[in-house]
Amino acid sequence: xxxxxxxxxxxxxxxxxxxxxxxxxxxxxxxxxxxxxxxxxxxxxxxxxxxxxxxxxxxxxxxxxxxxxxxxxxxxxxxxxxxxxxxxxxxxxxxxxxxxxxxxxxxxxxxxxxxxxxxxxxxxxxxxxxxxxxxxxxxxxxxxxxxxxxxxxxxxxxxxxxxxxxxxxxxxxxxxxxxxxxxxxxxxxxxxxxxxxxxxxxxxxxxxxxxxxxxxxxxxxxxxxxxxxxxxxxxxxxxxxxxxxxxxxxxxxxxxxxxxxxxxxxxxxxxxxxxxxxxxxxxxxxxxxxxxxxxxxxxxxxxxxxxxxxxxxxxxxxxxxxxxxxxxxxxxxxxxxxxxxxxxxxxxxxxxxxxxxxxxxxxxxxxxxxxxxxxxxxxxxxxxxxxxxxxxxxxxxxxxxxxxxxxxxxxxxxxxxxxxxxxxxxxxxxxxxxxxxxxxxxxxxxxx
Length: 448
What we know:
Layout: H1 5-27, H2 46-61, H3 63-67, H4 69-80, H5 86-102, H6 104-112, H7 116-134, H8 142-166, H9 176-202, H10 207-229, H11 248-252, H12 255-271, H13 273-284, H14 289-306, H15 309-317, H16 319-333, H17 343-369, H18 378-404, H19 415-443
Helix pairs in contact: 2-8, 2-9, 2-10, 4-5, 4-9, 4-13, 5-8, 5-18, 6-8, 6-18, 7-8, 7-10, 9-10, 9-14, 9-15, 9-17, 12-17, 12-18, 12-19, 13-14, 14-17, 15-16, 16-17, 16-19, 18-19
């Protein structure tokens, strides 16, 4: 049987083809490594919920203390710092709140670099030392109170709060809003407990020094527990030398993100005015002393639900879609305080304002984080936002104090701070609406 000619002729061609393929394989650059797969999120589990519990305890001690400052404002104006104006006293609380938020800028970066436990331990020590020093201050020594409570406690709070919030992102993605809502609910719970506890201790047989020490020992137990149970899960940037660096230019040029930050700052500029002044307002309008003492706890108890229910809805409808209505209602409710000169009005205002303002406070963090293009940006973006918001919180309540009382013995004129607070909250809402519109175009979705 004769051989087929095509089979013989194809051998040199096939050999040449094989040689060429080998040459191309050696000459071609090696294929690029595939991009790392996005990390999986457990969305629950024992360690995840222990970390949420630790964050709850941190916010209980820090933000809970900030939101109960109305008790200190009332006591200082009547007893400890009675020679100072309302604006002077509110500078103590506003400095504390400023440092609480402004500390987010350095600690956000430190958290991304893997220094979570360092921040938690150092911040806890500074905070506990400062609150024990507050129990030693003397009457009418304004600088002592300002340094211990405004500066010392503020620095300690600022070091631990943002890492306690950000670490939740290591365990939750789909359910992140509700997890952060549970953490932030610690602030409302702390505010309710501290408001009732401190009012009874300061104005009872225990007095101011031991009243502060009792709260300090509670903080000691809770912060120690938080340090022991909270853990990070994802590797930090330090542990991933090949990790893509954070694109700061992209963050700084992100117009939608900055509209969100400016909007949040405007809202926070006026949002805390009722938290600082509601107890004083109730007392000066002749309400029963018991109700005046419980005005802030009522508002904070309602805020507890406002920081969980809207977050649950935010996981389904988007954080912006839930936060914006809450903020509009909060701005409008400021005018309701004009009618809250009786028992029923004060209670209704406290319940409504606590709920809707809590909805904004708890959802603004996932809203800011939603602009992140990479998981590693979350800490940095939240830190920058907190730093900017801190300046609004530094000046908001002192401005309200200067508007409500122009000199030490002058009358309280309530319409001026309330109109100021309402206008800036609603102006901030307008910025948030514009920010949501930009993000909606970028992500091609209305569930934001």
